[in-house]
Amino acid sequence: xxxxxxxxxxxxxxxxxxxxxxxxxxxxxxxxxxxxxxxxxxxxxxxxxxxxxxxxxxxxxxxxxxxxxxxxxxxxxxxxxxxxxxxxxxxxxxxxxxxxxxxxxxxxxxxxxxxxxxxxxxxxxxxxxxxxxxxxxxxxxxxxxxxxxxxxxxxxxxxx
Length: 160
Prior knowledge:
Structural class: alpha/beta
Keywords: Signal
Distance between the termini: 57 Å
Number of helices: 5
Oligomer: single chain
Shape: globular
CATH topology of the largest domain: D-Maltodextrin-Binding Protein, domain 2
CATH superfamily of the largest domain: Periplasmic binding protein-like II
Protein name: Phosphate ABC transporter substrate-binding protein
Radius of gyration: 21 Å
Signal peptide: 1-29
Low-confidence stretches: 17-34
Helix content: 40-55%
Largest sheet: 5 strands, mixed
Order of helices and strands: HEHEEEHHEHEE
C-alpha cells in the first residue's frame, strides 16, 4: 500500500490486460500466416488422376478408397501435433484434428474404415520416403515444400 492506495487490484488488472493483448496479437499473427498457406495433395505416382475438391474430401473422410473405380489409394497423415495437420483439416474439411480423431474412431469402431497411417514427422523427406514405399499413396504438405517431380492432385487454399 502506498499512501493509502492499494496497488494490488490495479497491478492485477494491468497484468490481465497485457496478457489479453498478447494473446490477441498472437492469434492475429497466427491467423495471418495460416491464411497465407496453400496445401497440395500429391503423390509421386503420375498415374493417379487429378482430384476434385469433393473427391479429396471423400478420401480424407474415408468415404472412398479408390479412384477411377480401380486405383486403391492409401493415405498418410502428418503427426497429430503438426500445425500443418490442423490447418489442412480445417481448410479441406472444416474440422479440427480432435473432431477428425473422433470421426475416425467411430469409423474404426464400426468397422467401416481406419484412419490414414500417421507419420512420426512432418518433414517433407519423410513424406516423400513414405510415398516412394507406397506407390498408390497420397499425402499433403504446404505447396512450397512439395518437390517439382510430384504429381499434384489438388491444391487447397483457405476459404475455398
